[in-house]
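Q: Here's a chain of 205 amino acids. Please give me its 3D structure as tokens.
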Amino acid sequence: MNLKLYTDNFEEYIKCDAIINYDNEAVAKLADKLYESSVGEIDFIKKAYEYVRDKISHSADIGEDLITISASQVLNAGHGICFAKSHLLAAILRAKNVAAGFCYQKLILDDDTAPVLIYHGLNGVFSKELGKWIRLDARGNKKGVNAQFSTEKEELAFPIRKEKGEEDLFVIFPDPDKLVLQSMREAKTRSELWDNLPAQLGYTK
């Protein structure tokens, strides 16, 4: 696996904006709390990842129809879909100057009920201690999903099944994809969004 950066401008991976809004008081306080309880950078990244994976529910898993998008919305609501959870994890890490970006995989939504290819979101994170980027998937574990923190062999939520047309994009983008955000903003509910999940990325058009 060879991870690639979309841009060589490292500042793009630590910026604050309306979606990755770590200038929000609640997000900043959470980042402070996790950082202060950590022993070194790797431990902080692990704590931030496990917080978003375990403490923030996946909206579909709990039957929640509210769509959250920005990091502060996700934290306030306590849930979000994969894309939204990746926004919160990036915000927590960037708040402490840990570079973080966004990665995407093309997956079958559900083999039995919705055998269509859609995009799934996760994070790319840079460790200064290790001198490399790693990918982490904070989607949230459940039966059949067991993503873990790892700095060596990836332990993501979903294995890629090429025979079913699934694809892995090994690019780390500095911003959430514009078509992903558009889909999230246009849907009135998460149920509606589920019928219109992005099947392509603005980055790759």
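Q: Can you summarize the key feature?
A: The helical segments are 25-36, 41-55, 71-77, 82-94, 178-186, 190-194.
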